[in-house]
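Re-run with default settings, no changes from the original entry. Doing this only to confirm the output is reproducible before filing.
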Amino acid sequence: MNSEVAAFFSPGDFLAILPEMVIAGMACLLLLVDIAVPRTKKCVVPALAVLSVAVAAWFSYELAGSGVSAFSGMFVLDGYSDFFKLIFYIVAVFAILVSLRYIRTEEIDLGEYYVLLLFSLSGMMIMASGTDLLTIYLGLELASLPVYALVGFLQKSRKSNEAAMKYIILGAFSSAILLYGISLIYGLTGTTQLAAISAALVTGDVNGPLFTLAVIMLVAGFGFKVAGFPFHMWAPDAYEGAPTPITAFMAAGPKAAAFAVIMRVFLEGLYPAYDSWQMAIAAVAVGSMVVGNITAILQTSIKRMLAFSSVGHAGYALLGLVAGSEEGMASVMFYLFVYAFMNLGIFGIVIMMRKDSQSGDQISHYTGLGKSNRLTALAMLIFLFSLAGIPPTAGFIAKFYVFMALINKGMVGLAVIAALMSAVAAYYYIRIVMLMYMREPEKEFALASSRGLLCVLIIALAAVVALGVYPGYFIDLARYAAFPL
């Protein structure tokens, strides 16, 4: 038995998952550290969490470009996974930094908060490197389960508890659908490895109603994870009820991980059946843009507005997948990189507005902000412009490259629909700008700033501006990291 295990696992396999082991191991260690550290020194736990992410990032840097395939082809280290792990590391560190003061204000300053963040990060990393449907499913569940708990972390808030219950029930339902789709793919092809599935599809032996059903189930399962229409029903309640740093985290991190998986599965494993799934993904993308952007106009809560906005942004990103080209894949990767900074920045402003009895959850709470807190209002204006896709911000460049990928594939109609929905989105973003600058403040603003939060806002703001003016390096990096089709 031992010899069989040794034949399956090699030292090189464990070297390949060293960053993931660092994150998971430190998460377990932090549980013990949290018990041993006095209440007066609780900053030790988040400091160690940031350190663990930094160590994992260093190991990932050392292993980058190795092209190692581990665990009999179930896990791979390539430029594609490295690019997404860079996004995950940034999101995790930023989420920790913006949480420091917020969780003390909300009286949820518990070590388990950071432990769950790290476990979710380890799952996202596995998702990015998984080249087997079972490995991907394992990573997806490891990334999702901690977020379910984090959404309900505000134990005294009825909204938080309700959001967590809805999220976990719908999440379990979507996971079951996804798992059934995986089982159908295995039954039809005899394998769960993406390369072998692709080879089976090339022979043409796999076709018919069962394969169509399997594709529909995969689209539904992954559609839930990216909050695409009509699988987005969990997003508004989860975004509104969760602690705001967790809203920022799941809007940028797990969403990017879900896109990493959906592109790996459909553009690597199911690419020979492109004609079978292209229309399904296109329908989800168009529905997400239309429903997300139009529904966002009606919201009075800024967190719910940003939830529906994220549904719209999922639609834009899915268009790069619909293009079915390396250019489309690279455009989605760049879009998600930019989207992480935009999201963390805008939610950082929302967190800053949470102090004492002031919550900052309602759009009306930002009335007159530009006349009393000019720098904060300016930062929010730039983030809103970037989310709307207004030049010269990074959001404009990200959408531009997605549109170009569509046009180069002859899908001009989809590009036109996306451009029209961007105009609709600009309306509800600019509405907040109007409230900030064209109305008198109704009360004195008390901003809850901290060093960690200010650091995140400065970096996010610099990234949104710099990537809008000089995007070339990261666009080339995304093109280099995209796997060949």
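Confidence is low (pLDDT under 50) at residues 1-7. The beta strands are 69-70, 75-76.
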